[in-house]
Design brief:
Elements lengths: L1 E4 L2 E9 L3 E5 L12 H5 L4 E6 L14 H14 L6 E5 L1 H12 L6 E5 L10 H14 L2 H8 L5 H4 L6 E6 L6 H10 L4 E5 L13 H11 L2
Parallel strand pairs: 3-4, 3-5, 5-6, 6-7, 7-8
Antiparallel strand pairs: 1-2, 2-4
């Protein structure tokens, strides 16, 4: 299904019944990365997967900006009449979740952040350098987004009041110190570093993610 919000058109799917859970993918991906998780969650929840602007089946975008994409998501939640959904975001989707939870304290009921960073310096050098080289030659807007944004301050993170589960892989492309700093800034958050996991290996069409997030969602 498609819906026009915030000056763009977003593609989304909605399945199941019960309390709403919104799933947001990462850079260069689409909602299909949750094809394994969504059916499991939809047994107990209304599950909405969204393709961010410029991704998947949503409208193309000349440029990308995390805060604008967060506003897209906020507008979609309002337009669909979702009452305080929980939000699970992976990578870019987790960044959008942090922005939303900080700016709109009454919009969400909870946040699950998988592999978020609050600034480009959170990316390990061994990943950032090849990205910079690729961006130089391709001028790819998705690489540009990751290398120039986000810029989420600790003061913003401290405004988050909903329950937050902060996840990252033990072999994540995001620095462990950076992930721990996010968790420390968000009062009452729960931090889990998953041994042996990469940035998105436990997320993309993975059967592991449900077992990790289900207890948190059921505790709300």
């Amino acid at each position: 299904m498609k819906i026009k919000v915030n000056g763009t058109e977003l593609y989304y799917t909605q399945n199941g019944g019960g309390a709403p859970v919104v799933l947001l993918h990462g850079n260069g991906e689409d909602g299909g990365i949750f094809d394994t998780l969504a059916p499991e969650l939809s047994k107990d929840y209304t599950v909405i997967t969204v393709d961010s602007r410029g991704h998947g089946q949503s409208a193309p975008a000349a440029a990308l900006d995390y805060r604008e994409m967060a506003e897209d998501t906020a507008a979609l939640i309002v337009a669909l009449g979702l009452q305080k959904p929980a939000l699970l975001g992976s990578s870019d989707g987790a960044i959008l979740g942090l922005i939303l939870a900080a700016k709109y304290p009454d919009l969400l009921s909870a946040l699950i952040s998988c592999g978020a960073n609050t600034r480009p310096s959170g990316i390990k050098i061994k990943y950032a350098v090849p990205m910079k080289i690729a961006r130089f030659f391709t001028r790819d807007k998705m690489l540009a987004l990751m290398l120039t944004q986000p810029d989420i301050t600790d003061a913003e993170l401290k405004k988050i009041t909903v329950p937050v589960l902060v996840l990252a892989g033990g072999n994540d492309m995001i620095k462990a110190s950076h992930t721990k700093r996010i968790a420390a800034a968000v009062s009452g958050s729960v931090l889990k570093i998953l041994p042996g996991e990469t940035h998105s290996g436990y997320v993309v069409r993975s059967p592991k993610l449900y077992g990790i997030v289900a207890p948190f969602l059921k505790s709300l």
